[in-house]
Structure formats: structure tokens, C-alpha cells
């Protein structure tokens, strides 16, 4: 990175520091008055200057104003609005404690942000769901699910029923960066997508970025799902949990040192497999996970946090096939306040995703995974009331284990083998500014400089003409090239290096206090690839780093939107249109073998992709009945050209739909509070069926029936739709007693729609005719959960 890049940043800091010398700074923390937990995204508004701001991820705020008296209003959904007059005659540190507007069973009544659209902030393509909203939504097996809840937002779809991961604006599942307390989660699902790995009792805040992504985020193309865990009650000890038909959960929290330190410990587990054992069924599938977090305030300027997550899934068939996979993350963070205007956070993060198989009928164990060690140092500089600067650096070291095989017994005949491990180092520096130019125009602009080093030690193949995939002109097909030699790299030698500059820009033009027009542009680089031949992540998928053959994916995205609050904020409307293009998006040649493939470059071709669409989100934010309607009209396509005029490319070089293309995506969510005892909720989902490639005919060759397929992804599965409902009963005897309870009754897919997860074709053995076989995962699924808090 050029050294002179720091000169303009220093001059900006110096200029604004000199300009603000005649002003004073008001700063502090905003916390829950009951448990002293800091609150993220609390809105503060200065009446006299018409200036607004929000607390950061650690509840800190800062604003610099001229000397004088100001009326400060603090608002947060689910909390009483606080209005206070501030006489600002010197730099002032003031902490606020706000109270809940009503007591509820849900431990997490901490709300992401006021549902009123912030028309002045240059933030767009960002969706927020409160934990309270998520807990009120009906989900499968009665278990609250963060991932399934975000599927009701515009631009977000699933890969199919019973499949893990999610797709954002036509992107693949591996193009989503999922963060839990800043640590990367590589697989966000339990039991192949039936549950998410996030225990809602332990979640404090979540935000989904689909575009206009701030420069502090990088490494993925489609979205950032940023989730923070609770810090715990600093005043008193509490527990809550729930007992369901399939799984149960429990959480404990309390002070380590009253008023200064706290802990959270939460656990979850499923036990449906135990019922199978009662009927002597040897198969089983279950999961368990553990969330923990410690926080301690050393003094007003220093806070430390230690958080962790551990989860495992186990899938077993007849004691001969055992699949185990899961995430482990640990994060140590240190918040330091250099001054009332300069906030910093340093993080040391460890992430580990393990996936393994035990095949006793063959006699071997298979272990693989990915680990990364991450260092981050971020700064938030509140220079003036109209200019804020965020900057920092990040370094991420990757350790890839493509696979290790070990025999389980001497009779197996399997030789122990370790596929070559792969290593990489990703570094980044970023700077991002939020700048209010005038009363009507606010900008957000910045850049991210990323550097990726593919490191040894490894022995790699070399190929004729440097092409690991060749084209057979006689049969018009692509084939894996035979290596002509090898080259060896020593430990920490650089195999390949990439550098990218990623600009970010967003603007909000305010038409009036209730409506605005926003636009954004961002470039993103992704250096990791998920090697998979399915639309949804599976435990057998392998992560691979960019190298001389697997080039980094580069995305450019633009978006334009209209935002409006209606009827005194009772309703809000968000309309966005977007277009994005991607370079170096890989696809696989026909017949590609991906499992245990040490030379994946021999079965992939680089292409390009594009996605474009329209998103609409209409909300009702207050009253007994609340909810939203989201609709997305979009198209996602990919193209792999021939490298020479003689080559056909994939799909004859024509654009074809990706496996994540969903032309129509509609979600309707409603919550109705009948009285203090009963509340009801429902959601309806309708999506275009997943793109697939069906056979259109067949011919016989030497007695073998050979199918003829349509163009790639030319067909669709049938339209997907379902309706879920739930009812929550809160007993009246909860009032006045130390422990509280509630019952949650739900029905998933109430009209028993048998949605197609896949369609396969076969020949009927009796009639000899061809037939299509539809696979459906779920019909109607009732559930009941008993929640308790004390």
C-alpha cells in the first residue's frame, strides 16, 4: 500500500480537528435501565440542529456541537422515549439508561432500530428484523429461526425446502458473509437447513446488508449478515428457556461483578433421535450448540469481551455411516476510548469449521475443514456533527484442510492419506466517511484496499498452455487436462498474489422529513470459493482459496431507491432497484467430480454473472396489527464463453439462469395482538420454483438409453408456496410472580402443500415407460413450545 495514502487522511483529520476547536462534544453510552446492557442503533435527535445519530455496535455515541442549550430526544422501539435538555458548555460525558415501555416474556426485547425509515441516512439495501419480531413468527418444529425469518425480506430466498444457506439478490450461498460477534460462521444451519445455528435467546442484534455495503466489510460479494450476542445482565441473575417437541434450550445470565461485568451462557439441543431408539431404529440426526459471552468494564475508557460459540451436527445411518460437522468460534475484543471523539475496537478472532465422515462399511474416516485466525483494529472518529470517519485494518490467515483419510481397521485395505493443505493470508485497510453536505444531501463514501496471498507449502500441477481444462473438438465437450509436470512451493512461499481497490459510495437526497431518494455503488472482492455441485451448502463441500486458476470474484453493484414514511410513521415504504455484475464466477464442466479432487482446476471454467431486479417492502409499524409485505422481481444469469472461436463454452456460450434465479418472490407477514393473553401471527411465502435442467428426449446407443437434456437451467420446479400460523398464550397469572411462562402453538404449512425439493426421472421397471419422481420434504407440521423465564 502506498505510504502517501495516509497523508490525505491525516490532513482531513487535522482540518476537522482545528475546525471543531470552538465546539464541545457530548458522548457516552446508552444502556437498558434494567440489566445495564448497552443498546445498538439507538436513535438520538437534536431538535435545534435537526441532527440525528445512532449508537454504534457497543452502545457508544458522540456528537460535537457549538456551545448552547439543546433538546436531546432518545428513541428505541420497545423503550420509552427520553427527552432531556442539555446545557453544553464543555466536553460532556453522559450515559443514559432507558426503560422498556412494557414488560414482556421475551428476554430479548432489545430492538434493532426504530421501524421508521431513516430517510436522511445514506444507508440503503439494509434490512433489519427485531428479535421480538422473529420470536413472533411461526417456524418449523416450534423453534425460532433467524435464517428462515430473513427469508421474508425482499431479495432473500432459500435454496429449497430442507436445504441450508440462503441466497441474496441472486447470489450463491457462499457469497454471504455470516458474522457472529465478528467471527465468521461457515455453515449457518443445523440438520441440513431445518434449524439455524443462532440461538435467538442469546442474540442481541442483527442486520443484513445486501448492497451499499460499508468499507469495513469485505471478502464476500452478495451480503453481510452481522449478528451480535447479548452481553448479559449486570445487575441480577436470570434464566429463561423453552421446551419443544423436537428441541429445547436454556439460557443463564448475571453479573460477574455487579454493575461492571456480566456473563451469558446458553445451550440448545435436539432429541428427536431418542424416539427412534425406542422403536429400535438405528438411524439418528441431532444437533447441539453452546453460546457464551463474558463482558467487563475496566473503567470508563476500557471494556473487554470474550465470546464463543460451539455447535455440532451428527447424522447417522445404521451405525455404519456417521456425518459430523459444525462451527467453533472464539473472539476477544477490547474497546478503548481515546477521547470523546475517537472510539476503537480491537478483535482477536478464531473460527473453525469441521466436517467429517465415518464409513464403517468401507473402513475409513474422512476429516476436512477450514480454520482462520483474524486480527481487526477498527476506529470510529466523530469529527463534527456533520462528519464521521471510520477506518481500520484487518488481517486474516486461512488454513484449508481439503481432506484427510484414515483407515478404521487393518482389514479395510484403505491407505492413510492427507490431501495437500492450502494456506492463504488476506489483508485489508479501509476508510469510510459519512458526510452531511447540506440539509438535504448526506453522503457516505470510502474505499477498501484488499490484498490476498495464496501461500505454500504444496506441490501443484502444470499444464500445456497453462490450461487445466481442454476442449475436445471431436465430441464438442470439455475434458480434464493431463498434467505435464509439477512445481513445489515451500512453506509460506507465495503461489499467487492479488490486490484490489474496492470503492464504496452512497448518497441520500431528502425530499422532506418523510421521504428521500437514495443511490449506492460498491465493489467487492471475494477470494474464497465453495466447491460444490449443489445449490445449497452440504457438509461435503470444500472451501478453496484463489490461485493462478481460481481467480478472485469481483462484483460491481449499483442501486437506486425511494424511501417514505406514511401516516405519522404508522406505515413505511421502501422501493429499490439494483443491478450487479460479477467477474470470474466459476462453473463446472459436465461430469465434474468434486469430492476429494486435489486438482479442482481441471473441472472448472471461469465465467461471468449478472443480476438485476426490483424490491418492494411495505410495513405497518404500530397498532394491534403489525407486519409487512415484501416482493422481489429479479433475474440472475451466468455466461461462460469459449476461450477460442472453436470452443462452445457452457450452454453454447449463451447466458443461462443460475440455480438461485427466482423471478418472483413474495412474503406476507402479519402479527396481531388480541389482548394481553393472546397474540397471533402468520406468514405466507410464494416463490418461483428453482431452475433445473430436465431431459427432453432420449436415444439408444449400443443398447444403452442416453437422455437428451435441455439447455442448462432452462426448466423450473413447480411454484413454491406455503402458509404458516402460530398462537401465543401468556397466562394472566404471570403478573406479580417472579417467574413467567407462555405457550407457543404453531402449524407449518397449514394447507399441507407438498412443495418439490427435486424432480428425478427414471424408467418404470414394470411398464418400461419414463416417469418423473417428485421429492417433497415437509407437509403440514404442528408444533408446541413451552417457554419460561425467571
UniProtKB/TrEMBL annotation:
<keyword id="KW-0521">NADP</keyword>
<dbReference type="Pfam" id="PF07715">
    <property type="entry name" value="Plug"/>
</dbReference>
<comment type="similarity">
    <text>Belongs to the monomeric-type IDH family.</text>
</comment>
<keyword id="KW-0329">Glyoxylate bypass</keyword>
<keyword id="KW-0812">Transmembrane</keyword>
<keyword id="KW-0813">Transport</keyword>
<keyword id="KW-0998">Cell outer membrane</keyword>
<feature type="domain" description="TonB-dependent receptor plug">
    <location>
        <begin position="123"/>
        <end position="220"/>
    </location>
</feature>
<comment type="similarity">
    <text>Belongs to the TonB-dependent receptor family.</text>
</comment>
<dbReference type="InterPro" id="IPR036942">
    <property type="entry name" value="Beta-barrel_TonB_sf"/>
</dbReference>
<dbReference type="InterPro" id="IPR004436">
    <property type="entry name" value="Isocitrate_DH_NADP_mono"/>
</dbReference>
<keyword id="KW-0675">Receptor</keyword>
<dbReference type="InterPro" id="IPR037066">
    <property type="entry name" value="Plug_dom_sf"/>
</dbReference>
<keyword id="KW-0560">Oxidoreductase</keyword>
<keyword id="KW-0460">Magnesium</keyword>
<dbReference type="InterPro" id="IPR039426">
    <property type="entry name" value="TonB-dep_rcpt-like"/>
</dbReference>
<dbReference type="InterPro" id="IPR008969">
    <property type="entry name" value="CarboxyPept-like_regulatory"/>
</dbReference>
<dbReference type="InterPro" id="IPR012910">
    <property type="entry name" value="Plug_dom"/>
</dbReference>
<keyword id="KW-0816">Tricarboxylic acid cycle</keyword>
<keyword id="KW-1134">Transmembrane beta strand</keyword>
<keyword id="KW-0479">Metal-binding</keyword>
<protein>
    <recommendedName>
        <fullName>isocitrate dehydrogenase (NADP(+))</fullName>
        <ecNumber>1.1.1.42</ecNumber>
    </recommendedName>
</protein>
<dbReference type="Pfam" id="PF13715">
    <property type="entry name" value="CarbopepD_reg_2"/>
</dbReference>
<keyword id="KW-0472">Membrane</keyword>
